C-alpha cells in the first residue's frame, strides 16, 4: 500500500477486506463496451497535467481546479530523464516526488491514468529519454537494441515497483497504465520491443491492471503501435470526424470502451510560431459529442505548465524547431494555473454527464507587478571560464559533442585560435550543418555573429592570426518526436574558416547551473562592474540584479523588453529560456513561492546576443506583451502616489 499513515493503515486493512470480497477492481466489460469500476460501468473524463512542469507547492492548487471542473481522472506522464538525469541515480524528491503527486490526486478525489513511457514525447527534452543513452554512438532508441532495452529494464525495475501500490486494485488511484507512447508514429515498428515492454509491465505490475497503447488517427500508426494484450486507444483533436476516428479504434478493439487518450484542447508553440490557440466552443462541442457516444476522454492538456530549465523539447520535420519555455498550450488552466473561459465551457458540458462538485472554482492565484529592476553586467563568458568550467578544457584536434564531454544540457564553449590574418571578412562555415543548435561567435571577446542549425550555416569573421576564437554552443532542447530523437548536441562536424579546417580545440563544459545554485554571481566576494555603464552589449554576457522583497511572494511574469535571447535564474532556480526577439512568448513565468518575502531575490541573466543599454527588466502581473512604455509610466505614477500618500500620512 502507498506510504502509510494511520488513515492509510486503516484504509489498507479495509482494502484487504474489499479485495477479499472482490469489490475493488477496475476492468473492461467487453459486452457493454465500457470500463467497470468496482463492477459498475464507469466513464472517465480526464485531463492531462504534468507534475514535471509545475512546482510542487502548486500541485494541489491545479488538482483542485481540475476536480472542481468535474473531472474524475487525470493523465500523467513520467519523464524518465527528469528522474534519472544522471545514469544510475534515480531522484524522486521535491519537484520529482511522484508518489506525493499521486497521493495529492488521491486526496483530491482524482483517479490516475499513468503514462510511464519509457518514451513520452510531450514536447519534453528527447521525449523523456535520458541523453546519456547517446553515449552509445549508434544506439537505436525505442527498439529491441540490447543496450537501450537494458537501460529501460533497469529504469522500470525502479519505477514500476514504486507505482504498483498505487494501482486502484491495490488501494491506490491508478486505473490504467500506458505502454510506450504513439509507438506507431515511429519508424522502427519493432514488435519485439513492445513485447519486451509488455512483459516488463506485467512482471512488475501484475495481471490486474489495464495496460493500453495510444496512437494517432491513421491505420499505419494503429498497426505499428498496437499489440495483443494492450488495449488500443486513439488520439485526435477538434478538427476530426469522431465517428471515423472511433471506427478506426473499433478495427483494433471491436469490443470494449471507446477512448480518446489525447483530445487536444490547444497546441504547442515553437520559437518563431504564431501562438497556437484552439476555439473554446469547438473544444466543448466536440467533447460533448464524444461523451454522448459514451467515450472515455482525456483532454490534452488540461494544465500545461512550464518547461523550466532546459526541459523543453523540439521537433524536426522540415527543420529543427525548438519548443518555447511556456507549455501554456492554450489549455483550460493557464501556465500559471488560472481558470479560463475554456475551462468554464468544458465544465458546462461535463455538468450534462455527471454531477459537478458543489462550491466555487478556486480563483486565479494572485499576481503582482513588482516593477522594474536594473541589472548590472557581470562579464562575458570568455572571462568567466575559471568559475564556469573549473575543471578546465578538454583538448581535441577536432570538435567533440556535448555527449562526449558528458555535459548533456545548456552550453559548451569551443575555443581555438585564428590560423591566419583575416584582413577581409572571411566565411566561417558549417558545411555539414553540424551546429546543434546555435553558436555564438566571438574573436578576442568581441561578438561577431551566430550560426544556427538548419538556417544559418555561414557567417563572416575578421581578426588577426593567433586571436582567440570563442564559439559558445547552445543545446536548444533535443528532438522529442520522429526519427531524429537521437539528437546529439554541440559541434557535430568540422567548421571551415575560409579554406582552413579549424583544429586544436579547447572545449569547456559550462556548469552554469552549478555556479548559480552555489550563489554565483551574487556571493559577497562578487562585485559587478564598478561603474555600470549604460551601454548596449553584444554577445554572451552575464547580468545580475536584485528584486527587493516586499513581504509578498506572488506570481509574476518577467519581461525582458529589448533583450534578445538567453536564460534566466531567480534565487538559483533556472526558469528557462527567453527569446522575445523571436517570440511568440514574451514573458517568463515566475511562480510566487520561488520568491523570498524577506530576503533580496537574486536575479541572474545570461544574454546570448544583445542586451539594451538600460539593462532593465520588468516584473509584470500578466504574460501578455503590454506596451512597455505605458507600463513604465503607470509604474512611475503608482510610485509617486505611494510616496505622496506616505508623506501625507507621515505629516498627520
Ligand atoms: C509537431 C509534432 C507534434 C507531435 N506530437 C503529438 S502529435 N502529440 C502526441 C504525443 O503523444 C503527446 O505527447 C504530444 O507530443 C502531442 C502534441 O502536443
TrEMBL record:
<dbReference type="InterPro" id="IPR001944">
    <property type="entry name" value="Glycoside_Hdrlase_35"/>
</dbReference>
<dbReference type="InterPro" id="IPR017853">
    <property type="entry name" value="GH"/>
</dbReference>
<feature type="active site" description="Proton donor">
    <location>
        <position position="182"/>
    </location>
</feature>
<dbReference type="GO" id="GO:0005975">
    <property type="term" value="P:carbohydrate metabolic process"/>
</dbReference>
<dbReference type="Pfam" id="PF21317">
    <property type="entry name" value="BetaGal_ABD_1"/>
</dbReference>
<dbReference type="InterPro" id="IPR048912">
    <property type="entry name" value="BetaGal1-like_ABD1"/>
</dbReference>
<keyword id="KW-0732">Signal</keyword>
<dbReference type="InterPro" id="IPR031330">
    <property type="entry name" value="Gly_Hdrlase_35_cat"/>
</dbReference>
<keyword id="KW-0326">Glycosidase</keyword>
<protein>
    <recommendedName>
        <fullName>Beta-galactosidase</fullName>
    </recommendedName>
</protein>
<dbReference type="Pfam" id="PF01301">
    <property type="entry name" value="Glyco_hydro_35"/>
</dbReference>
<keyword id="KW-0325">Glycoprotein</keyword>
<comment type="similarity">
    <text>Belongs to the glycosyl hydrolase 35 family.</text>
</comment>
<feature type="domain" description="Beta-galactosidase 1-like first all-beta">
    <location>
        <begin position="399"/>
        <end position="511"/>
    </location>
</feature>
<dbReference type="Pfam" id="PF21467">
    <property type="entry name" value="BetaGal_gal-bd"/>
</dbReference>
<feature type="region of interest" description="Disordered">
    <location>
        <begin position="519"/>
        <end position="539"/>
    </location>
</feature>
<feature type="active site" description="Nucleophile">
    <location>
        <position position="262"/>
    </location>
</feature>
<feature type="compositionally biased region" description="Basic and acidic residues">
    <location>
        <begin position="526"/>
        <end position="537"/>
    </location>
</feature>
<feature type="domain" description="Beta-galactosidase galactose-binding">
    <location>
        <begin position="540"/>
        <end position="597"/>
    </location>
</feature>
<dbReference type="InterPro" id="IPR048913">
    <property type="entry name" value="BetaGal_gal-bd"/>
</dbReference>
<dbReference type="InterPro" id="IPR026283">
    <property type="entry name" value="B-gal_1-like"/>
</dbReference>
<keyword id="KW-0378">Hydrolase</keyword>
<dbReference type="GO" id="GO:0004565">
    <property type="term" value="F:beta-galactosidase activity"/>
</dbReference>
<dbReference type="InterPro" id="IPR008979">
    <property type="entry name" value="Galactose-bd-like_sf"/>
</dbReference>
<feature type="domain" description="Glycoside hydrolase 35 catalytic">
    <location>
        <begin position="35"/>
        <end position="352"/>
    </location>
</feature>
